[in-house]
Amino acid sequence: MMTRITRPAPPGPTDTAREGQDQGRARPKRRTRGGGLPVKPLVLTLYLVFLLLPIYWLLGMSLKTNDEILSTFSLWPIDLTFANYAVILSDPAWYMGYVNSTLYVVMNTIISVAVALPAAYAFSRYRFLGDKHLFFWLLTNRMAPPAVFALPFFQLYSSIGLFDTHIAVALAHCLFNVPLAVWILEGFMSGVPREIDETAYIDGYSFPRFFARIFMPLIAPGIGVAAFFCFMFSWVELLLARTLTSVDAKPIAATMTRTVSASGLDWGVLAAAGILTIVPGALVIYFVRNYIAKGFALGRV
Amino acid sequence: MQTKPVNQKAWFLVLPVFLLVAFSALIPLMTVMNYSVQDTFGNNQFFWVGLEWFEDILQSERFHDAFLRQILFSALILAIEVPLGIAVALCMPTRRFWTAVVLVLMALPLLIPWNVVGTIWQVFGRVDIGLLGKALYSLGVDYNYTQDPLSAWITVVVMDVWHWTSLVALLCYAGLQSIPDAYYQAARIDGASRWAVFRHIQLPKMKRVLLIAVLLRFMDSFMIYTEPFVVTGGGPGNSTTFLSIDLVKMAIGQFDLGKAAAMSILYFLTILLLSWVFYTVMTSGEGNGRATRRRGRADA
Amino acid sequence: MARIDLRGLAHSYRPAPRGRADYALKRMDMTWRDGGAYALLGPSGCGKTTLLNIISGLLVPSQGQVLFDDEDVTDIIPEDRNIAQVFQFPVIYDTMTVRQNLEFPLRNRRVPEPEIAARVAEIAEALHMTDDLPRKARGLTADAKQKISLGRGLVRRDTAAILFDEPLTVIDPHLKWLLRSQLKDLHRRYDFTMIYVTHDQTEALTFADSVVVMHEGAVVQVGTPTELFERPAHTFVGYFIGSPGMNVLPCEITGASARVGHQTVPLARGYAPSGGKVELGVRPEFVRVDDGPDGLAAQVTDVEDVGRYRIARLRLEGHPMAAILPDGARLDGHTTRVGFDPAHVNVYVDDHLVEGEA
Asked: What's an example of a GO molecular-function annotation for this chain (chain C) (predicted)?
């Protein structure tokens, strides 16, 4: 044995910290500390400024009076006012737009996730006649331009008496959200080992009870991610939502086109309405922030 | 991978999705098909015209122009957003707190209704009240998106970059996160340069998410309607009239149902075809890899 | 190839470590002989990987120095350290062929083309992978990928040492044996210093000429497999090496005899009185059952048949212990008398082995 070893001793207070000693020796091979431009934070900061500046500008406008917007050019509101927001929050014609949007978005999210759950389970666990074709066909619907469907949808929902209802928009948005939800959930479910299902069945669980009690808690993050994306795509869509509604279910996005008055565009109110459409999205992102990266990590969006 | 058991009863689980999507997709698609081969004079009387509408569309200069504009737009979008998205993903902070902050800020544009995105840029770019327009104007740049086609194009492209680059960046970031540390450590020991690490480790590992990013960005940019419509309304002239805008003009503005329907079908088929081409090209390398793996296992 | 010295080395992942518990790696001095084959053995989280990463330069230690052939390399970055490392999961460059993978470390160091070709050909031959050179690396099996990882270390002529971080974890059991013997051949042929991290004692004992056992961030013993078996320097080594592990019984010692509860165990040597926790360590292999009237009274709780031999589970003065039963031995009833071979009874004070006086 050529190896020698002494009994390890606890580090004593006399040990000089490594950091102190390093400064003197600087050979090319050594680790360099600091130095160079901080390229990464710089690129990131520039990008974030680029993202936030237009939003800031809208926010600034929403807090200005119309006169100030049109007459003076300032980087922040000089005459701070909440009047624009007051207009929106006191007029049902305005705020019902938010209620309508929220209603059909929530309906769509619930319907999409509810029908996608069993289907995703089937795709992740079994083979059956035409499974691959069906899956592919579902995904092609994600490639269908809403512009193509606008007119047929209008005729279809008019003919069955659903025109200008929330459920019409919710169903129409299922066109792209259901395939998306199936795709995301299938990814999460495939990550759950099949042995868990088998054990549950051996333990005497029926399928519905197993699905609700055991399986759904396991893929809860997946359900969250799927719901997030359904919410997102339904919330941001306008073409179909506007085509299928006129008064009773009119979305906020469509309401925004009515800011043209006799004196021209009411910029302040328009900006305030815009800012208020960003708020729900921002809240949702904040709550699911830890799941977003996970959802994207599956490469399924 | 274990093979999945065959179970035809699984169809019952898929049935709700099938019915729902069939209702939302097949019926409208059949309506479109039906219109595309008929003509009407507005009194609910239809005449069989065969493929006339398709011939009309394929020969119309208006369609050609819109199609070329669309291709140019999607190409520009992909050329800018994909590299920029990768770059942003590579610059993501490593500290947990900052990552969360940056992720939330980055995702913000993705959750803004599309017409509001249009509104934001419409305001931002205006020469009289917008920060961007006014700044450029005072710098002496001849920028006016309502008058000048080039300005209009720049505005629409920059708006889309603003709107969607984060999606590419988030996807790439997720792809980067899935690379085990050992790869970076091995690369350091092998003396790999920063570029070599990107070229031989990060890029190959991001391939899957990049495929999805390219497909999504291609599809969505090819279908774009609301945002440019709000900003430019397709103008000045027809300079930013993309396929969707043209289609809606034709169907709702002019009530040219047959022609619009024929165009819809061509439009949809184009997207399917191009998506398939992207998919095939980007996954072409994987086929022989899988074959070798099988051979490798047979040897062992 | 080089000798590696660790001097006063300690590492903590916290910026300002306070007590001993904050250190992932407790202060140590150690030498790894040039050309030696070392196994670094210990349970998960004992600091094996930390130590390995410090040697390869992926981590800078909080305190102390790392020396390669007397040159201080503590602050030298990994690529300039002439170290190769094989990781738990195979790391290969997917987009490259096997040949390009092997050339990669040389190209990064701007080695002249003819030399690259010669080195790659030689190493591929040594790895039995010459036929695989033009193949895409991605398509290969896990064991072939691990060989490429090793090959990337071997192609460099100046490699000081090769570090293995549980490299056989993902390899099929029947290939493990094959790969291990190929590795031994390579070691004999190139005589590189190798440090092989594992938590599998069979792997460590069959493969290395020297085993380093780590426990809670400290090296508790370095020795040949026989030394580890017969004279564990720490109760942890006794417990970790061997199956079942060493019996450890609390006792009091006066001179050359120990008292376990009310019974007396004779020792081969005398021991000076000492404070702290005093224990006897005796391997189940050196415990005799049915020892006649002079033996210690013990209760039999269970007899397990593990195939090659049987293990008797006993209780001595309430302390659980095990004994390997000789072939044909029978245990009738619930009590027996056991005897220990005095030459193989070790004495531990506060978990560390103490030598007796002759």
From this structure: ATP binding
What is the mean predicted confidence (pLDDT) over B112-128? 86
**In which band, very low, low, confident or very high, does the pLDDT at A20 lie, cut at 50, 70 and 90?**
very low
Spatial contact of A108 and A230, defined as CB atoms under 8 Å apart: yes
Single pTM value for the model: 0.79
Range of the domain at C338: 248-354
| CATH code of the domain covering residue C341 | 2.40.50.140
Length of chain C in terms of residues written: 358
Structure-token match 């309906």, residue found:
A107
Could you tell me if C63 and C133 lie in one domain? yes
Q: Are residues C8 and C125 in the same domain?
A: yes
Backbone angles phi, psi at A39, to 5 degrees: -60, -45
- Write the CB contacts of A189 (distance below 8 Å, at least 6 apart in sequence): A120, A121, A124, A125, A215, A219, A222
The answer to whether A153 contacts B130, with C-beta atoms less than 8 Å apart, is no
Interface of B with C in 162-191 (CB under 8 A): 180, 182-183, 185-186, 188-191
The H-or-E segment that residue C113 falls in is helix C113-126
The pLDDT of residue B79 is 95
Count the domains in chain C: 2
**For chain B, how big is the Rg over CA atoms in Å?**
24
Residues C235 and C256 in one domain: no
A240 lies within 8 A of chain B by CB? no
Segments making up each domain of chain B, as ranges: 20-282
Are residues C148 and C271 both part of a single domain? no
Tell whether C77 lies on the interface with B, counting CB pairs under 8 A: yes
Rg (CA), chain A: 28
Are B140 and B131 spatial neighbours (Cβ–Cβ below 8 Å)?
Answer: no
The answer to whether C94 faces chain B, any CB pair under 8 Å, is: yes
B77 inside 8 A of chain A by CB = no
Contact present, A283 and A234 (Cβ < 8 Å): no
ipTM surpasses cut 0.90: no
How many residue pairs from chains A and C have C-beta atoms closer than 8 A? 71
d(CA C198, CA C164): 8
Could you say which of B182, B191, B296 has the minimum Cβ distance to residue C105?
Answer: B191
Same domain, C172 and C290: no
Mean pLDDT, residues C100-120: 90
Shared domain for C306 and C348, answered yes or no, is: yes
Of B111, B167, B225, nearest to A235 by CB-CB distance is B111
pLDDT band, residue A116 (cuts 50/70/90): very high
- CATH number of the CATH domain containing C158: 3.40.50.300
C158 inside 8 A of chain B by CB: no
> How many helices and strands, by DSSP H and E, does chain A display?
15, 2
Peptide bond into C134 cis (omega under 30): no
- In this structure, the answer to whether residues C194 and C120 fall within a common structural domain is yes
Q: How far apart are CA B203 and CA C95, in angstroms?
A: 10
**Angstrom distance (rounded) from CA B40 to CA B256:** 9
Q: Which of C183, C216, C240 is the last residue of a domain?
A: C240
Nearest by CB: A30 against C23, C30, C76: C76
**pLDDT tens by residue, C6-15:** 988 889 888 8
- CATH superfamily ID and name for B20-282: MetI-like (1.10.3720.10)
| Angstrom distance (rounded) from CA B169 to CA B166 | 5
CA distances from A212 to A117, A221, B18 (A): 11, 15, 22
Could you identify the residue written with the tokens 């544009």? B109
The domain boundary, picked from C188, C212, C240, lies at: C240
The candidate with the shortest Cα–Cα distance to A216, out of A127, A111, A121, is: A121
- The pLDDT tens digits of the residues spanning C43-84 come to 888 888 889 889 988 888 888 889 888 888 888 888 888 888
Chain C positions touching B191 (Cβ under 8 A) are: 79-80, 105, 108-109
Both C272 and C210 in one domain: the answer is no
